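Could you show me just one protein sequence together with its fold in token form as a worked example?
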Amino acid sequence: MEHVLDRAVALLAERGGLQRGDLIVLGCSTSEIAGGPIGKASAPEIGQRIALAFHEACMRHGFLDAYQCCEHLNRALVMEEATLASRGLERVAAVPKPHAGGSTAAAGWLLLKRPCLARSVQAEAAVDIGDTLVGMHIKPVAVPVRMDDAHIGQARLVMAYSRPPYIGGPRAEYT
């Protein structure tokens, strides 16, 4: 799984033209990875491996990382306090746990130096493992990215990056 996440982050960077310091959000269902229904078989040990692998991949490629909580925490996002402050995001008060926030978000909380929760974010890119609907945290316009062998365990891995909206119609020229 570590290799898959590093490949995913590298592919997002390449296809999306991501810049150092851009934010990538991870949504992850450890239940789906383990072959169970989403939200019904949380696996903290899987969450720890995924969070660490994602964090290391983001650091290696120069990106900021955030971890989407499950619906029990309204899909709030675990991130470094400095990321929240630099983006002017709204902080919310909760600490994710495996059954109220999700195993990966809970592991992300323990992994970061100064973790906090943001209500929402508009990130430059996202990785979704297990159909967690992480797309709500990507800036418009989201562009899907496909990767060969895009599974971790039993869960599907999908990704997207954002691009500026095209405006102006057929006479416009775009960069």
